[in-house]
Structure prediction request, 237 residues.
Amino acid sequence: MDGLFDGLTLADVHGDIHRNIVSVRESQDLYDDLTDSPDGWQAAINLELTTKPHTYTSNQPVIDRPFEEAIFNEAINYPFENITKSRYSDGSFGVWYGANDLETSIHETAHHWRTNLLEDAGWHTLDGIVIERKVYRIRCDAGLLNFISKLETFPALIDPSPNSYRLTQPVGARIHHDGHPGLLSRSARCVGNTYAIFNPQVLSNPRHICYLTYRTEGNTITVKRQPGETLLTINPA
Prediction:
């Protein structure tokens, strides 16, 4: 990776990142009793996101703070307190991963579900395996190392092969050592952008936006946001 850090620019990020985590779906989404239209559900979610107070601004902090703190820990702190190996970590420090949009977060997490869990268990050829997930929007305010400009010269940064992490983990170790808050890159699974955050202090205001259900069907994974409503069908192999 000689030369990777030469001439890097910073992406000045001030906006929302999607975080897609394992969870349990509620019996129904928050707004499906208001309208039958998915566009209507999204409009209601967008209205809530623009008007909802930031985390820890409750008028009843004694009552509400434990619940707000639980959301903060689930959406932001978890990977820093439950450290695992990943694309940019050898397992000695935590890295939080997010995506610029919902679809990219689905492609990324579907791949990791299949390769890190189902294939290891020998279940990747079975139909009807189900996992439920929760998606948050989380505010990021940081100057992130912009690796997108380096992808043509260093394609190993988004190598989708199982052995690709041996090339990127030393990069993550350098970033962690130097104290940078994180990086911006492109997904190895689709055309969207991904974020790797090394410092949780640049993340704030987690807001839940939806639940998802992933289900294996042959070589594909079907993703539903509402029962009976297929959002995506992808082949993460």
Observations:
- The CA atoms of residues 143 and 235 lie 34 Å apart.
- Residues 9-234 form one domain.
